[in-house]
Design brief:
Elements lengths: L6 E4 L15 H14 L3 E5 L5 H13 L4 E7 L2 H11 L5 E8 L2 H7 L4 H18 L2 E7 L6 H13 L4 E6 L6 H14 L7 E6 L6 H10 L4 E4 L13 H10 L1 H4 L10 H12 L20 H9 L28 H10 L6 H17 L5 H15 L4 E8 L7 E7 L5 E7 L3 H13 L4 E9 L8 E9 L2 E9 L2 H25 L14
Parallel strand pairs: 1-2, 1-8, 2-3, 3-4, 4-5, 5-6, 6-7, 7-8
Antiparallel strand pairs: 9-10, 10-11, 12-13, 13-14
Helix pairs in contact: 1-2, 1-11, 2-3, 3-5, 5-6, 6-7, 7-8, 12-13, 14-15, 16-17
The protein binds acetyl coenzyme *A, 3-methyl-2-oxobutanoic acid and magnesium ion.
GO molecular function: 2-isopropylmalate synthase activity; acetyl-CoA C-acetyltransferase activity; manganese ion binding
Cofactor: Mn(2+)
Subunit structure: Homodimer.
């Protein structure tokens, strides 16, 4: 085998399933195992067969149905565990039994309540027994990183003497540090030269957030198998995340020189499947598979990525199978380039002053909304186009609403001549009050024919779109307004409808009777 090829041992279905609250049935485990095979992992640790009849059945089903990877079952250093594991994986193309016993004094004294001598004997017997049942036997000295290195070496020598084919060095409680872990492995290679003839493996936990860093240090020290789990699942803070270590090796391959057999384009699918079946969501800012991992929200980054992706991305989202995720997210930190590009996607070719005006409205909206969606943008732009044909402008308004007295509205309007006029009114409801306050300020007797308000987008911070039809001196016209505040949306719509109807009245008075009515533009 290529000495630079790293064996990917996936333990999502064993250590990953040890995450509190996860219990996968045989069908669910099989579905994940099939995806792991598509992903191209080399070994699937399918479960702990002695743990329950269900887990035994799940491991057996996977062993029978999943082609490609080695299928492993975990076993304590007990004959019954080993026999159950061997039976469960027996029908696999390539079965493996993974047996383990602690070598740290903390575990030997307090958990096993035993002695180093007994542990040495149990390890030897366990590997020998496993080897009598299957060819491929992995041995792990549990809690090795807190154990005496000389004693661990002695146990490993016994495991090798009995025919172990892979030796795994677990950092069971996520205690070690990269330099220390690498030094521990280097020392084991010196103390147990036979380790050079088998595969040395790393199995790191994330209690201090170092699982991937420690695993990587182990690979640099000579290990060629990495035990990891999709989405970093595993006991307590989890195991090294498969996607992180695999992409680290891929992205820095030229510098590190190690490869895996993983089809990285299957990573996103594997992550989503595991998340769905385990009920463990992925944190948005998780490396590689988090929702944000390939999204850019800030204007400077968006500008860079729009000009050349590599300015702010060290890998492409396509390389991990996230083709369907949009890279540019519009929010309060976005700039004109991103807005222009998003508008272009919607079919609006805006530039110059129109872009500046849309950008101003967009920033105001982004201050109110966490994320600005395509629908919000569309509403904003059409609203901006409508604003171009308005004659009256709503400068500001105040509405006092209460259940104890009738609502009162005050408005300030800028007329087509640039004059500021004010009006106020006490109405039946806040919208009625503001509409009549606009009439009072403009000294127009417009009559409301229709009023409707719709939510443009979902959620508490949704944009509302108000539509108003007004009648003035026998003519009618419509106006629309958009805002996160429905009273403001209604007032904008009223002011625009008033501008439109007034223009119609003037035109009707000026033009011959067969003239066509003026069409308002509002769509791209
Ligand atoms: C670091 C790891 O991830 S190790 C794997 C952890 N995974 C699991 O434990 C999940 C599956 N486990 C189970 O379903 C159960 O714990 C079983 C079926 C394996 C055992 O259940 P029980 O027999 O009731 O024992 P229990 O879990 O309470 O205690 C563990 C026993 O195993 C012993 N033990 C622990 N590790 C080992 C080992 N590697 N080899 C031999 N014995 C061990 C403990 O000393 C304890 O023995 P004791 O009963 O003589 O005190
Ligand atoms: C069983 C072993 C490999 C384990 O999961 C650990 O020590 O963390
Ligand atoms: Mg573990």
């Amino acid at each position: 085998m290529d000495p630079n090829r790293v064996i990917v041992f996936d333990t999502t279905l064993r250590d990953g399933e040890q995450s509190p609250g996860i219990s996968l049935n045989a069908a669910e485990k099989l579905e994940i195992a099939q995806q792991l095979a598509r992903l191209g992992v080399d070994v699937i640790e399918a479960g702990f067969p002695i743990a329950s009849p269900g887990d035994f059945q799940a491991v057996r089903t996977i062993a029978r149905e999943v082609q490609g990877p080695i299928i492993a079952g975990l076993a304590r250093a007990h004959a019954a565990d080993i026999e159950r594991a061997a039976e469960a994986v027996r029908d696999a193309e390539r079965p493996r039994v993974h047996t383990f016993i602690s070598t740290s004094d903390i575990h030997i004294q307090h958990q096993l309540q035993s002695t180093r001598e007994d542990v040495l004997g149990q390890a030897r017997a366990a590997v020998a027994h496993a080897r009598s049942l299957v060819e491929d036997v992995e041995f792990s000295p549990m809690d090795a990183t807190r154990a005496d290195v000389e004693f661990t070496a002695e146990v490993l020598q016994a495991a090798l003497d009995e025919g172990a084919t892979t030796i795994n060095i677990p950092d069971t409680v996520g205690y070690t540090m990269p330099d220390e872990y690498a030094a521990f492995l280097t020392r084991l290679y010196v103390l147990v030269p036979g380790l050079h003839d088998v595969v040395l493996s790393v199995h790191c936990h994330n209690d201090l957030g170092l699982a991937v860093a420690n695993s990587f240090a182990g690979l640099k020290a000579g290990a060629r198998q990495i035990e990891c789990a999709i989405n970093g699942l595993g006991e307590r803070a989890g195991n090294a995340s498969l996607e992180e270590i695999v992409m680290l090796l891929r992205v820095r391959e030229a510098d590190v020189g190690l490869t895996t057999g993983i089809n990285t384009r299957e990573i996103a699918r594997a992550s989503r499947m595991v998340s769905r079946l385990t009920g463990y969501g992925v944190q948005p800012n998780k490396a590689i598979v988090g929702r944000n991992a390939f999204q850019h929200e800030s204007g400077i980054h968006q500008d860079g990525v729009l000009k050349e992706r590599s300015t702010y991305e060290i890998m492409s989202k396509a390389s991990v199978g996230f083709d369907d995720v949009s890279s540019i997210v519009l929010g309060k930190h976005s700039g004109r380039h991103a807005l222009q590009s998003a508008l272009m996607d919607l079919g609006y070719d805006v530039a110059g002053q129109t872009l500046n005006q849309a950008f101003k409205r967009f920033k105001e909206l982004a201050d109110k909304k966490k994320q600005v969606t395509a629908m919000d943008l569309e509403a904003l732009v059409t609203d901006e186009l409508r604003a171009d044909v308005s004659s009256y402008t709503l400068e500001w308004f105040d509405v006092e609403a209460s259940t104890r007295r009738p609502p009162h509205a005050t408005v300030s309007i800028i007329t087509p001549d640039g004059e500021t006029v004010r009006g106020d009114f006490t109405g039946d409801g806040p919208i009625d009050a503001i509409f009549r306050a606009i009439n009072s300020a403009t000294r127009r007797e417009a009559r409301l024919r229709e009023f409707r308000i719709d939510a443009v987008t979902g959620g508490q911070d949704a944009l509302g779109e108000a539509s108003v039809i007004l009648e003035l001196s026998g003519s009618t016209a419509a106006g629309q307004g958009v805002s996160t505040d429905i009273i403001e949306a209604a007032a904008l719509a009223y002011v625009r409808a008033l501008s439109n109807v007034e223009r119609k009245v003037i035109m009707a008075a000026e033009e011959p009777e067969d003239a066509q009515p003026l069409e308002l533009s509002g769509t791209p």
